[in-house]
Amino acid sequence: MNEKRPLLLHNARLVVPGQATRAELPAGAVLIDGDRIAAVLTDRAEIAAATAAERIDLAGRIVMPGLINAHHHAYGNVLRGTENALPLEQWALYTVAYGRSLTPAALRLAVLIGAAEMMRAGVTTVLDHFPYVRVAEAMLGAYEESGMRAGFAPFIHDRFDHDILGVALPEDVRRAWEGAGPLPSDEVEQRIRALVGAWQGRAGRIRILLGPNAPQRCSPELLALWRRLAVELDLHVHTHLLETLPQARHGRSTAPGGTVGEMDRLGLLNERLSVAHAVWTLDSERELLARRGVTVVHNPTSNFMLGSGVMPLADYRRHGIAVALGTDSANSGGRLNMFDVMRTALMLPRPVLPSRDWPEAGAIFDMATSGGARALGLAAETGQIARGMKADLVVVDGGGATMVALAPNLVGLVQHAGPEAVSAVMVDGRWVYRDGRVLAFDEAAVLAEFKSITAEITRAAQADVALATRTVPMFERLYERNDS
Ligand SMILES: [Zn+2]
Q1: Predicted TM-score (pTM) of this structure
Q2: CB-CB contact of 275 with 295 (8 Å)
């Protein structure tokens, strides 16, 4: 599976940093040594003279940096087909009900099923925001096995939405949801320290982040732990932020500067923080995010599916805020297809903006690559085809039905490419997917194993799913229209 080194990918079109949206992609070659890009060559004589142990001719192909899915919950990959026709707070009842029935074996399969889908769609790096810190090792082991680059952000939280949003639950329902209750903060700290000690940098591909579920879902004690651990363990942080209108109403009613103002007061906003969604920020909150260098992760397909709202992308860009893109969960966004996410992000602002303010395809492509790398703290490692960067590369075949008519440029890639055009994927200089086959692990065995446990997952979740169905109406008033 591993090629001779140095390896030269030549005769391709390259997506290089600073590529203008409509300009033709330059022809050239990428020289790979070990796990990194040793040179990017566009001069014919230099390419002919390059010393390589293996040369691969990519005539008619595009080589682009691997896409980065900067917000994802992999456990949801085995919950596809469960409830997703409800707003977030009610949807979450089901995802929690199913999620807590998943065994370590099921979680491993969730990661690998997601990895197979993402590799086929040209994704080389994913940021997994993971709720169940108790079983994090199963997930991390699966990421190591997957061949992908992964940021792993285990949840920190000790507050429930029903309390935060003032939903009165009958005592037995409340007890059933709260179960054994959240972990005490010293135990959370101990577990995160252990994960960082054992997994930070593993295989050159695993990166641990802090993953507070959302600021309002953390007690003052956990907010202090968040701030302290990020510094002491030198970690980037990833959290949900203002995904829905009820969350925004709560934030504005409890803190004068809203949720973001409160985070700033607590010293939580900085360049190492990325926030998923940020659909319902006030302009003053966007200004603060800009001033502190926070990255916003836009999840347009998930926001559509759950009816959460439309993130004001143009406002974020006007403030100069770094934006990344994510799929969110497979059971909230539908697919882990970053081409879909790019196309949706491209189109979504159009109905309400003059055309001069529409985002360009090049800007959207940057969000899905270098923007994601920034969110993970990997901007110097991945997200661009440049000398010294990790060789995380995707080969796109421009000759198929969806792309044959196109000039080779970013407009074509963002508007027309999809998983069917991806012919090979390399992570860390190693081919993980090529010509229709996942090379990093046995995909067929993973799918077969999953089929053998689906009935078991449904059975294990049955009582909690019934509880979710009983609880849904209790959350309904959150979305009554008359008090928005
Ligand atoms: Zn999420």
Answers
A1: 0.97
A2: yes
Sequence-ordered alpha helix ranges (H) in 377-438: 410-416
Residues of the chain with CATH 2.30.40.10: 7-65+390-438
Quick one: tokens of 360?
């360009």
Residue 180 pLDDT greater than 90, yes or no: no
**Residue 91 CA to ligand 1 centre (angstroms):** 12
Count H helices and E strands in the chain, helices first: 19, 18
Identity of the amino acid at 263: M
Residue 172 has which token pair?
Answer: 């037995």
Amino acid at 159: R
* Torsion angle (degrees, nearest 10) of CA 442, 444, 445, 451: 150
**390: its two tokens:** 């990790």
Q: pLDDT tens digit string along 308-357?
A: 999 999 999 999 999 999 999 999 999 999 999 999 999 999 999 999 99
CATH 1.25.40.880 correct for 7-65+390-438: no
What is the CATH architecture assignment of 67-376?
Answer: Alpha-Beta Barrel (3.20)
Residue 72 backbone phi and psi in degrees, to 5: -155, 150
Q: Where in the chain is the domain with CATH 3.20.20.140?
A: 67-376
Q: How many Cα neighbours within 13 Å face the side chain of 97?
A: 24
Ligand 1 centre from 403 Cα, in Å? Answer: 32
How far does residue 217's CA lie from ligand 1's centre (Å)?
Answer: 13
- DSSP-based three-state secondary structure for 344: helix
**CB atoms < 10 A from the CB of 443, how many?**
19
Tell whether the model's pLDDT for residue 153 goes beyond 50.
Answer: yes
Pairing of strands 7-14, 27-33: antiparallel
CA distance 137 to 102: 14
Alpha carbons 241 and 230: distance in angstroms, whole number = 18
Amino acid identity, position 381: E
Q: Which residues surround ligand 1, an ion (CB under 5 A)?
A: 328
Complete edge-to-edge strand list for the sheet that includes strand 273-277: 237-241, 273-277, 295-298, 323-325
